[in-house]
Automatic annotation (TrEMBL):
<feature type="domain" description="Putative glycogen debranching enzyme N-terminal">
    <location>
        <begin position="20"/>
        <end position="200"/>
    </location>
</feature>
<dbReference type="InterPro" id="IPR054491">
    <property type="entry name" value="MGH1-like_GH"/>
</dbReference>
<feature type="compositionally biased region" description="Basic residues">
    <location>
        <begin position="691"/>
        <end position="700"/>
    </location>
</feature>
<dbReference type="InterPro" id="IPR032856">
    <property type="entry name" value="GDE_N_bis"/>
</dbReference>
<protein>
    <submittedName>
        <fullName>Glycogen debranching enzyme</fullName>
    </submittedName>
</protein>
<feature type="domain" description="Mannosylglycerate hydrolase MGH1-like glycoside hydrolase">
    <location>
        <begin position="340"/>
        <end position="583"/>
    </location>
</feature>
<feature type="compositionally biased region" description="Low complexity">
    <location>
        <begin position="675"/>
        <end position="690"/>
    </location>
</feature>
<dbReference type="InterPro" id="IPR008928">
    <property type="entry name" value="6-hairpin_glycosidase_sf"/>
</dbReference>
<dbReference type="Pfam" id="PF22422">
    <property type="entry name" value="MGH1-like_GH"/>
</dbReference>
<dbReference type="Pfam" id="PF14742">
    <property type="entry name" value="GDE_N_bis"/>
</dbReference>
<feature type="region of interest" description="Disordered">
    <location>
        <begin position="673"/>
        <end position="700"/>
    </location>
</feature>
<dbReference type="InterPro" id="IPR012341">
    <property type="entry name" value="6hp_glycosidase-like_sf"/>
</dbReference>
Amino acid sequence: MIERQLQPLLHELVGVVFAPTSALGDATGQIRPTGVQGVFHADARVLSRAELRIDERELEGLTRGDDGPHGAHFVSLARWLGDPTPDPTVRVDRLRRATRNGLTEELRIVSTATVGVRATVTIDLGCDLAPIEVVKSGGAAAALEAKTGQPGMLTWSGTGITVTVTAPGADVLAGGERAITPRLVWPVDLPPGGEMVLRWQLTVDDPRAVVVGPVGEPEWSRPEVAADDRRLVRLLDRSLDDLRGLRLAETGAPGDVFLGAGVPWFLTLFGRDSLWAARMMLPLGTDLAAGTLRVLARRQGTRFDPTTGEAPGKILHELRRHELALPDHGLRLPPAYYGTVDATMLWVNLLHDAWRWGMPAEQIEPLLPHLEAALRWLGEHADPDGDGLVEYVDTTGHGLSNQGWKDSGDAVRFHDGSLATAPIVLAEVQGYAHEAAVNGAALLDAFGRPDADRWREHAAALVGRFRRSFWVDGRHGPQPALALDRDKRPVDSLTSNIGHLLGTGLLDLDEEAQVAHLLTTDTMAAGFGLRTMSSDDAGFSPLSYHCGSIWTHDTAIVLGGLARAGHREAALGLADGLLTAAEAFDYRMPELYGGDDRALVNRPVPYPAACRPQAWAAAGAVLLLQAATGLYPDVPGGTVRLAPLAGAELGAVSAHGLRVANTPVHVAVDRTGQATATGLPAPLTPTLPTQRRHPIPQPH
């Protein structure tokens, strides 16, 4: 039997992150030379082993917890030491903290014994400098030989990276067989009731990295939130800590900060992920949006290159230090890869929404030429066959076969489970395109640029094309198809993609009401959030990456769309799913998790290879807070709409320190749903929504 080379599991590992550094180890604090365990720095594993022992024995783990936004605290016992009583008398606390260029560990050995304790503490280390794609594919790299220098010091080097470990007071064993598994050794001699603290530090010199950790504090505010449902407060606190650790900048441009997509696979610039995360974070300020827009504008496409997918005006998909090759998946992506169908429209929509939240004109104006280039891409290059719909196809044979947010190879399936053939026309992408055309026109008008009418006409035409091409009959009534295939046949599965159409203007009120109805059926919403695919579809699997699992950001985006459109009950159902899942995951939301029915499994099932933390999953907590408070500003228009989700079901919510036009704002919602906003910058005036009935439409 041929043994498969599988992507390693990581759902039970404990991570710390201070981008571009992250570390993953087991629940006891050990970093073992297996799977995805290790310390990573900008797409390379810089430490593959850090195993602690006392007297050549492993400790017994008790518990673990957080140690600030970038650290973890492990508590273990050495029960063979100390007094021979049922109670343990020698305890070891291992405090691990990520830094921008490495890692520190502190070992606190505490004795409450009535006798002295003598022991030898050792840490076995290893370094393989394995590229992240080798680790992700389940591969391995040979351990490198360590070099010794000054007392208590080890170094490894290769591929332009130098890794250094310093351990004050430790003896270093690195000769002979120990060259690839060097050991740090400390003698311990504790008096009765004594304690000792040992420290070691990892530093990385990586001049070829394409991303760096920015200096200074986060670009966003940290609001003071009170809520009847304390899960919301805990989720927001943990998420903001995680987002702090995911901040990145490009090498050479440290002032423009964006969010790296996620640990461990995607801790770099990803157009779609970074744009969505920045958009969700707008209630906390526009500075992150501005940095994200600028860094992607600098890499906006200027020419046609089928190898990279670059085209004039197109926004980048991902950035790596070298080619990303996953042979088992048929992937070979260049360092700067443009294989995304939606990032260009999302860039336009982030620029527009940041403007609505009060991003200053002097930050917007330099980006207007990039806006015009993005719109030209939408009008001239996003529709190769000229039918008025945005589509994609990988022409290289080694790029991403699917280039929407559901980018796995089997993501676009018909109701019967069969795969759609490219070129693919995704439903939600048409919504993004409509929204970008309308939003782009608004920006062009506001800043005195030409062609706004062209883009309004483009958007109007897209409405008719979508209505004629996408609506099909399903079990629960008419539904937008997931996509159109090569022959323009509707891909008739029911998926979460249609929830992204809410608020884009592509649907009328009746159509939005039907989409809300579809998303609240048990086939879609019976888990802890919104399933990516209906359980009625043949391709459904609760642990499929994109065909039945639940993605945190996807649920948050759809929840936000439902809340803005006034579909309160539907939004509240998804909010409860997210908050229940958050509690199960200790409030560090994973990229995705299983789509099992709540009646079958009473807690969310982890997806074993999900990134955690992950930017748009963590930023979903801010979107949930925005929906709860109902704060929807239009600074250029001089108004703020208050339409809170909080109230009788979700409970009261209060948030101090939301930011509108760089001004701190306080929003409070009582248990009846009555909202007030104070501190709004002049001349903004709040308005309250009117109640609307949402009839279910008939088939088109």
